Amino acid sequence: MTDTRRRVKVYTLNEDRQWDDRGTGHVSSGYVERLKGMSLLVRAESDGSLLLESKINPNTAYQKQQDTLIVWSEAENYDLALSFQEKAGCDEIWEKICQVQGKDPSVDITQDLVDESEEERFDDMSSPGLELPSCELSRLEEIAELVASSLPSPLRREKLALALENEGYIKKLLELFHVCEDLENIEGLHHLYEIIKGIFLLNRTALFEVMFSEECIMDVIGCLEYDPALSQPRKHREFLTKTAKFKEVIPISDPELKQKIHQTYRVQYIQDMVLPTPSVFEENMLSTLHSFIFFNKVEIVGMLQEDEKFLTDLFAQLTDEATDEEKRQELVNFLKEFCAFSQTLQPQNRDAFFKTLSNMGILPALEVILGMDDTQVRSAATDIFSYLVEYNPSMVREFVMQEAQQNDDDILLINLIIEHMICDTDPELGGAVQLMGLLRTLVDPENMLATANKTEKTEFLGFFYKHCMHVLTAPLLANTTEDKPSKDDFQTAQLLALVLELLTFCVEHHTYHIKNYIINKDILRRVLVLMASKHAFLALCALRFKRKIIGLKDEFYNRYIMKSFLFEPVVKAFLNNGSRYNLMNSAIIEMFEFIRVEDIKSLTAHVIENYWKALEDVDYVQTFKGLKLRFEQQRERQDNPKLDSMRSILRNHRYRRDARTLEDEEEMWFNTDEDDMEDGEAVVSPSDKTKNDDDIMDPISKFMERKKLKESEEKEVLLKTNLSGRQSPSFKLSLSSGTKTTLSSQSPATNLPGSPGSPGSPGSPGSPGSIPKNTSQTAAITTKGGLVGLVDYPDDDEDDDEDEDKEDTLPLSKKAKFES
């Protein structure tokens, strides 16, 4: 069995029933000779010393708790625990333990929990219930010990909880609390603290119902004030009764709802402030407390939602100009908390909740609130708006488009949001970042609906670019009127970076709307002014915006970039950056590398023609030299159009031939080629390969000439069979006496860049014939008698028939001779 090491903490239970940390190490399982059996070994992480060596006994009860804990007892008063960092490690060791004991790893307990010693100690554990000591001052210590000893065992916890429920024990304990307080019995109060804390850890809803009732909850909080670890008791009750004030912004008439709100606040206070932070063994023992609070919030939201008068009064006062500022702030804070509570609802209930708010007019109310001067009110309104946008952006979009038909652009809800983003006074622009995220959600086509009758994307984007985009770009345009940013302080740079981030998102996700806007408003030129900013992050944002545009490979954008010479700011920034190897340097080089790799011809030519002198000395990367090579290849193809047309002929004839015969023909071609190379004479001497490259024929043309020769020979065979009465071929052939034939074929006068000449290439200096530059491309079979027959390929009948007479009159091109 292989050892498996996992990171764990080793704990032992001390005399005070507290877990002591014995160190962190790695656990493994293996056979230990000294112990004569499979054992658990833990070696210290720091020095490799042995923290634990424990034999896996067949009769020991091991418990797996909370997915990452394994707990067991080695002796009567010696409990051990391994707390795993990862669930996977816990599962693996648990499987080893179960394997040794012959148990199914799906169980959480390998043996019956109650051993003999426990039976002797708790004789009544076998009975249906647990008998609790009588609730008296003198027995508080005994009760505290019983509660503490029951917590490690699920079975004992269950029996203790049932006993507490059935006997009304909690109310008796709280009566003792009053007695201890009156007598100032600090020892008794400390015991009560331990008892009440232990009852919380029993994790039972029925017990919580009793403890959190109106008559008991304040006494429970009182018990938890007397923590033995503190020299002075806390004053939680004083805070809840005197400092914390319940404000009814709108009077609540339902007493049950009011009581539920009070209870939820106090229980939340107990969870957050009163109970000590749970240890690693207790963190999941309060799950029922979390659930109690959760379901209370759901009930509160449901009750308020059903009270139409309450919500009507709320929105009426929110939008009433006569409402004073303090009252309005309380109303907005209430609405914000109300929306936060709604996050606990199930999806279907949340739908009904936001639909109710929408019907009540929450969006018009928010519009009024966002137009106010109070920053706290506006901040709360922004949080409410974010809940709405995250829940249903389509609802918000529909509202603003309807609103645009009635109001001016200045008071539109989205424009108010943009203005608040632009005018954020926070030096770190925390609010602006939040608002920019909301705007991005609203303009994201991915969450827009498309129905049979209308397309939300088309309608909303049309509205946004007409009514809102000019507001968003206003700070950008105002700051880029010169060659450098007008204002270049940190806060302005942050704001412009946010605007650019949103515009970059638009370039990526919107199509003609943003393209028209950028080109018509000359946005890219203004953005590139920011390349001169002293803030590197802003210059990089501007570069990223341009890179996103180039990445689209859209010729409309490319023509706009070339017409306005919009590489100039980028090249200038690159040169100003000098030899520094930083993000700016890498980002600019990557942009030019993209143009080279993607072979964007128009931009390649523009960059080399206008900026080559500035970039030619950059040799630590090959990007710019590669661009120059691309440019020269393009110009060469323009000077020799025959090169491109020959390629198109090769492509056409190669791919338009009948696929069924392609394989057989190519096999025949290669077989014949070998014969030709063995028996034929090379017309050109090997020394010709050193001649001028301009006169060396493209190897592709050579291949085609030889292929055509083979095809002509095959067609001669077909012609002979045709003379015996079979179907006539689709090409013409002239025959004469003589055995030698020469194949003439047009080939370009220059090689493709980088393709070397080869010995015997037709068309190199010294070979018969040269090709005038204006000669059309022809392929002909000629004999010594001088008759010429054009090859008319079967799939080009219509095209070649039209030009046949014209081609008959053309001069012969270079000849490549192969003697059979």
From TrEMBL:
Annotated GO CC locations: nucleoplasm; protein phosphatase 4 complex
Biased amino acid composition, Acidic residues: 670-681, 793-807
Signal peptide annotation: none
Domain PP4R3 EVH1-like: 5-101
Sequence ranges of Polar residues compositional bias: 772-781
A single GO BP: DNA damage response
Similarity comment: family membership: Belongs to the SMEK family.
Name of the protein in question: SMEK homolog 1
Organism: Delphinapterus leucas (Beluga whale)
Gene it is expressed from: PPP4R3A
